[in-house]
Design goal:
This protein folds into two domains: about 100 residues, Protein of unknown function (DUF541), domain 1 (Translation Initiation Factor IF3, 2-Layer Sandwich); about 100 residues, Alpha-Beta Plaits (2-Layer Sandwich), CATH 3.30.70. The strands form three sheets. Strands 1, 2, 8, 9 and 12 form a five-stranded antiparallel beta sheet that branches. Strands 3, 4, 5, 6 and 7 form a five-stranded antiparallel beta sheet that branches. Helix content is about 30%, strand content about 45%. The longest helix has 23 residues. The protein contains four helices and twelve strands, in the order αβββαββαββαβββββ. By secondary structure, the protein is an alpha+beta fold.
Length: about 220
């Protein structure tokens, strides 16, 4: 039977970075930063139900045309307008094993990007003009390419500091042999949309962007 001390020793060995006999050390480096979003992607749906599929589609198309006209007529910055999706099929209600045909349901989807501070106003306008389902806003931040470079530089610095701290006595770090990217820096999912003092206000929380790399450094 293994003693508690033996188990602890095994866990310590498993948690250490790779120290290879061939003369290199391999460690991970990570970095993260917070950035406030300046724009948001809104997605809404229009759903209609009718006995005839053509009529269900026609009704959904009519509402979508009104929404597209509304978006294009507003004197507010927007971009990436998309309204090309259509789903059409029968809709049923199931009750105790029995299926009841309700009609044909047509679903149209519209998405657009707006400035972050305009989210509340746009959601209200879209709902008032026929949108039947509103998805949670996806908050975005401009300048992602420049921030990615900074994050990778921070992650590399972190990895080299770890390697330096873990270099065996009597050896020193040599050149970097390999850098592997462990996924692209993306906003973390810890986003929040808080209610402001105005019940109709929407305040986006900060986006958390992270980078993780694996670095192999020669020992000499």
């Amino acid at each position: 039977m293994r003693t508690l001390g033996a188990w602890c020793g095994l866990l310590v060995l498993l948690s250490l970075p790779t120290l290879a006999d061939t003369g290199f050390i391999q460690v991970q480096g990570q970095a993260e930063q917070q950035v406030m979003p300046d724009r948001a992607r809104l997605t809404v749906r229009v759903q209609t139900l009718h006995d005839a599929p053509q009529e269900a589609k026609a009704q959904a198309d009519s509402v979508m045309a009104r929404l597209v006209t509304l978006v294009r007529s507003r004197e507010a910055p927007f971009d990436a307008l998309q309204a090309g999706h259509l789903a059409l099929g029968p809709k049923y209600r199931f009750d105790r094993g029995e299926r009841t045909f309700l009609g044909y349901e047509a679903t149209r989807t519209l998405s657009l990007e707006v400035e972050a501070e305009q989210v509340g106003g746009w959601l209200g306008l879209l709902a008032e003009n026929g949108a039947t389902e509103i998805l949670a806003p996806e908050y975005l931040a401009s300048g992602g390419a420049e921030r990615r470079l900074v994050l990778y530089q921070m992650a590399l610095k972190d990895a080299l500091a770890r390697a330096q701290a873990l270099t065996p006595e009597g050896q020193s770090l040599g050149p970097v042999l390999e850098i592997l990217e462990q996924g692209s820096p993306m906003p973390g999912r810890g986003l929040r949309m808080e209610m402001a003092s105005d019940p109709g206000g929407y305040v986006a929380g900060p986006l958390v962007e992270r980078a993780l790399i694996t670095v192999k450094v020669a020992l000499q």
